[in-house]
Amino acid sequence: MNDKIKMVLNFIEGDSEVVIRDYIINDIDIFLVSDHFMHLQREKASFIINHIMNEWKPKYILLREVKKDFEAVEHPKLYHNYESFFESYNMIHEQSSINDETYFIWLLKRK
């Protein structure tokens, strides 16, 4: 990673469920998830989504994932209950990805 990036961003490497469970960070401006949840089993993604909302509580979430209409029955592209974010977040922007219409992009702001 470029040294300038290291000065302004914190990266934690590891299994996403373990990282979300074991490294709670309470002062996050934005949490970015791109093309990741769709590759996780439903139970694992549900745990991560709930933990992000209830423990990490970022001010904003930027999410790019596959649309429900384009999910696969099994891996590699599962759709999850992303609407559960609306318990704690408001949608402030929504669009389809300009790179691939099968993906949505949401920008969410904490209520």
Give a written overview of the molecule.
This protein has one domain (27-110): Vaccinia Virus protein VP39 (Rossmann fold, 3-Layer(aba) Sandwich), CATH 3.40.50.150. The chain has three helices and four strands; from the N terminus they run ααβαβββ. It has helices spanning 3-8, 16-22, 42-56; strands spanning 30-34, 60-66, 89-96, 103-110. The protein has a four-stranded mixed beta sheet with strand order 1-2-4-3, with no helix packed on it. Helix 2 (16-22) runs parallel beside helix 3. It is globular, with a radius of gyration of 14 Å. It starts with a helix and ends with a strand. The model has no long low-confidence stretch (mean pLDDT 92).
Fold topology:
Elements: H1 3-8, H2 16-22, E1 30-34, H3 42-56, E2 60-66, E3 89-96, E4 103-110
Parallel strand pairs: 1-2
Antiparallel strand pairs: 2-4, 3-4
Helix pairs in contact: 2-3
Describe this structure in a few short sentences.
By secondary structure, this protein is α+β, with helices and mostly antiparallel strands.
Taking all Cα atoms into account, the compactness measure Rg is 14 Å
The major sheet is characterized as: 4 strands, mixed
CATH C-level name: Alpha Beta
How far apart, in Å, are the first and last alpha carbons? 33 Å
Give keywords.
4-stranded mixed sheet, 111 residues, alpha+beta, globular, 25% helix, Rossmann fold
